[in-house]
Amino acid sequence: MTTAKSSKEKEGIAEVRNTKLFEVAWEVCNQVGGIYTVIRSKVPSVIKKWGVDNYFLIGPYFEDQAAAHFDPATDYSTPIGKAVLEMQSRGFDVHFGKWIVSGRPNVVLFNPYSVYDKLGEIKYYMYKDYNISLPEGDGLLDKVAAFGFQVREFFHFLCENKYCENNIIAHFHEWMAGIPIPGIRKSNLNIKTVFTTHATLLGRYLAMNDQDFYKHLPFYDWEKEANNFNVRPIAEIERASAHGAHVFTTVSEVTGQECTYLLGRTPDLLLPNGLNIQRFEALHEIQNRHMKVKEQINEFVRGHFFQSYNFDLDKTLYFFTSGRYEYHNKGYDLTLEALARLNWKLQQAGSDMTVVMFFITKRPFYSFNPDVLQSKAQIEDIHRVVEEIKEQVGERLYSAITSSSGPYEFPDLTAMVEDYLRLKLRRNVQTWKTLNLPKIITHTLVDDHKDEILNFMRTSNLINNRHDKVKVVYHPDFIATTNPLFRMDYTQFVRGCHLGIFPSMYEPWGYTPLECLASGLPSITSNLAGFGDYVVNNIPDHEEKGMYIIDRTEGNFHRSAEELSNILFDFVQKSRRDRISLRYRCEEASMHFDWSNLGQYYDKAYELAVQR
Questions:
Q1: What is the extent of the structural domain holding 233?
Q2: 183 has pLDDT over 90
Q3: Please, are residues 510 and 530 in contact by the beta-carbon 8 Å criterion?
Q4: Residue 284 — pLDDT band, cuts 50, 70, 90?
């Protein structure tokens, strides 16, 4: 019995590997959001299983993105290359080549703008055939509709030229890519379709506006709510894609519930998100890399805080949160409340530890705060003078010791510094020092009086007072190497911190805690995030591996805030040795989320598609 089953499984896997796989996503060669990370990081493991000639990615062609991500082909002799040439001869602006990521997969990119002259006809048939009504003048929907039309025509052309006599699986990610699915089914093309929704747009809007979203989920009228939030066309596309696909999937149990009630179909399978962990793996260098990057963060903290007052950086921990600005959904409200409680608890306990909390998100701003930039420039001037003094004293000390003829005496170092450098250092330090409190935000926001993060910090007096044990830096832009304050990329910044905090109220998956884990960094998330829910159900003793999960299912904000503040307080009490040990356990645990392991869920979806 076991042998027969094993033989059948091997036969099914072999059948899948002899199949051509197309993955269609708006984020192929187009860096927009989290799905870009899913697709890009998965490529090496997919090519290893399927082979480079059996795997193709399809996405939109935007010239500015293609310049950085796309390498045009020179050989069009393959069936896909010939199909691209034929479509070009018919007037389609389609491009064939390689995506410049690990694995260098084959990609086919369609320029949405090239068929804008057909938009009226495209929209007419979408309404006539699938009852999906697209409005005029919506830029994103116009591009998505034009892209979907070209993808459908591409598959039609492949099947007309007998390419579909092979097994073909087309895997569509998210509503922006899902429009071709109803057309493929209506035309009865010999293509097996898989659709993955990574989050429903309607669910995201509802969660932002309803504190008890999951309690109310079974009772929503999707049509009424879609009209209320003016997202009816997108909801219709999502529903048509979900119902039209041979296999419907999503990324987590929590999003699966959302799909059942808002899309009207329960997912067949769950496809949890992974990472290419080898890209992060630092082996025994994990602590050394942390220390190196932490020193860079220390430099920012010195410039930002020490002009007003100082604290012991050897007894300072760096916490952070990051992601899309959704104050309620991302749990920024809960994080701030917990930080205010942590500040009080550390003061009451007489702790000698300091926490610096970074909020990294994206908000409209005018520019960097001039005072923040000036402080950064001034401390760099001080550092340069100190280096001059160090070099001068070093040379004079060496000369004094080696040229001395009498018994050894330690020289007077003060006398070795020129008056010019002493005066220069003194003036730089006096110019830099201030009686003002350190800024809580690094930029000048547009409408900062409406910003919920700023308003909470002001009303709770979490404004970087000298006596505060929790300091806050709100950075309303994503971190990059071009950033003058940090001069590092986001991945480096994460590695230099001590803890990530992501207690989301609504999060279909949530890559940020997983990225922390891969960098050897413990993190906190919630069981309403797909990643947190997966950890609770699949990773025993997860807290021992640096994965802390807050229970937010009951919707009791203050209880959750107290639970989070207690986890933070306990973490602050850990010894340096304990934190280092936890880092190593985090990195070891991250291997569970490598695509070499989680890719099996995709294999099951493709096997199911072939069977159906």
A1: 2-276+598-611
A2: yes
A3: yes
A4: low
